Amino acid sequence: MSRYLLPLILFSAIAGLVGGLGRLGLVSTPIQLSNYHGQIMAIAVLGALLSIERVSATAKPYSLAGPLLFLLYVLQAVLPLQWEAQVSVAAVGALFSTITIAQLFLRTKSPGLSAILVGFSSLTVATMLMSAGSSLFRVLPLLFTFPLLVVTGERIERSTTIQRPWGRRQAAQFAGARPVLIVSLFTAAFALAGFLYQPVQYLFGLPQLFLGLWLIVRDQIVKVGRRYGGFQRYSAVNMMLAYVWLAATGVLNLLSYTAFIPYQVRVHGFYLGFIGHAILAHAPIILPSLLGIATLAYSKTLYIPTILLTASLILRSHGATTLNPTTLTIGGWGNFITFILLVATIPLHLRTKGKSHGIEQHQIFKW
Known about the structure:
By secondary structure, this protein is mainly α. It has two domains: 1-196, no CATH class; 222-367. The protein contains 15 helices and no strands. The chain has helices at 2-23, 31-35, 37-55, 65-73, 83-108, 111-131, 136-163, 168-171, 177-196, 205-218, 220-225, 230-255, 263-291, 303-322, 325-348. It is globular, with a radius of gyration of 20 Å. It starts with a helix and ends in a 19-residue tail after the last helix.
């Protein structure tokens, strides 16, 4: 079923990206698409994408309700529906996905799933608050918490797997869910404090900075992957860039208390820098399994979107900070082209299942 939903997610993502170009005044788009660009990308696309990856691990039919409702949420951009009604649809979708994650966590007691559960719970709270009338800006820290903790939880799961052959000392680093759960709850608490008292939203930079630095130091998949070639190094490079952008966004949020840091610089540093590079790192590995298609052949051309994303985001941030329309325009188009290139490279790298090129993913667990 997931293979049929992914094209809809892709369509929603492109619609959101086009809406972003419309907000910059680079293309002419329907006013609703531009106005709800942030909601489409931060709630509908990420909600559907991250939940479908998790619900694919269950055989429960109702688990697909979450991704389906997130995609229904995108209709607000093209149909004259009441916005409050659409936010309620997203809130129900987030609730379904949270229940599915909670069932998986109770069954496995996985440390990574504890962070993912808090992340989806934060999305549920954020969408419920929006359906009650709260603005996107007020709930933004809660929306940050959702992908931040989901990505963190997934990296913890992967790092736990790779550490098991190395002995008890390394394996014990993520042996229990309690420490991870405590850190996740503190992150959500900072986000909730920002909602209750908007002037302290800059404090959300603390968990962003902490988790960025912590993941740089503790993500063993990144450390080991850099020593290999092919997809392992490609994924490691993208995740390291993601962590650097996450830590940098944390610093920018903290500096925003006394310095002028444009709102869009902080938002796009997180969503495009951190989440964007995380998507680039996972897409060539996860998409084939979700789609049930042939695996991908590695090629260095996959690094083109990686380089373009960081370069264009730096230009865009410079343009927004200095009010330079030239670099802002170049950066905005560069961000858009990055993800179009990512979509284009997937079919170009299809290969016959069973043929091997370079080091396969499972070999990393024997390091």
